[in-house]
Amino acid sequence: MNLSFIGLPGWFPVRTADDVEAWMNLLEEHLRLVRALDEEKAEEAELLEAYRDFVSGGDWRALLLFFAGYGMTLFRARERAAQRAASMPSPKQSLLEVLVVKGYPHYAEIVRNPGFQAIAKAMRLATVAEQYHKARGQQVFAIHYDLFQKLKQHARFPDQLLAIVMDFVAEYNRENARREEQLARKGQGGRRRPNITTGEVEQFVALFDAHRQHSEALALLLIAYASSREDRTAEGEAAVEAATGEAADDADVYTVPIDEA
């Protein structure tokens, strides 16, 4: 394939066969997401406008607004409109990372930071993952419905944003401790979540201090990562089920019981 005759966007360098494959996977992923949106709905029309701004001008803020906004829209739809949610696929975290790392390497340090990854995963477990368990009658932890909105509202105010993240970390770990106590009293197994460690918090805070001027991007990336779907192998699915006694959650097969629709 002669790439010199193909009009590719400047924000995603394509130099190798692996780059071509990554680009094709991203294109397919983006088509899935964009085609699921309805321009007749004001909120979704704004997402499409943000995506167009990114594609036409390489505006990375617009892209982050798109992915964060898409995740927030899907999160709300799952709670309020079962049929609408079923028609909206979840973004794949692995492809989002490829896009960020390849397209805007400056943000690679953020998404590859162990503290960022741990907190984003905890946020996912406390939002979309627990929402999934609720739909199956298996909720055991609180669902932090307002978390994404608070992150977005305070994204441009570094001190406020950091306070919100740290409050979430403290509450998330407290919920885990209460769960451990409950299971210990009953003397039985059950679904658990990993704590956010002190080391991971320190890594995140150091990252945050180094990127204070990019606090909005960091907040939007947290939302985008927390609301995306983790890729799982068959072995990973089996390990989760063996450890918890429950099938691993998969946002693409999310269903809502009739009485919650």
Q: What is the gist of this entry?
A:
This protein is mainly α. The protein is built from 13 helices and no strands.
Q: What do you see in this structure?
A:
By secondary structure, the protein is mainly α. The chain contains 13 helices and no strands. It has helices at residues 17-35, 42-57, 60-80, 82-86, 93-103, 108-111, 114-125, 128-135, 147-153, 158-186, 198-210, 215-226, 234-244. Helix 2 runs antiparallel to helix 3 (60-80) and helix 7 (114-125) crosses helix 12 (215-226). The longest helix is centred in the middle third of the chain and has 29 residues, at 158-186. The relative contact order is 0.14.
Record the SSE blueprint.
Elements: H1 17-35, H2 42-57, H3 60-80, H4 82-86, H5 93-103, H6 108-111, H7 114-125, H8 128-135, H9 147-153, H10 158-186, H11 198-210, H12 215-226, H13 234-244
Helix pairs in contact: 1-5, 2-3, 3-12, 7-11, 7-12
Shape: globular
The radius of gyration is: 19 Å
Q: Taking all residues together, what is the mean pLDDT?
A: 83
Query: Which H/E pattern describes the elements?
Result: HHHHHHHHHHHHH
End-to-end Cα distance? 48 Å
In helices, the fraction of residues equals: 55-70%
Number of strand elements: 0
Highlighted features:
single chain, 261 residues, mainly alpha, 13 helices, 64% helix, disordered N terminus, disordered C terminus
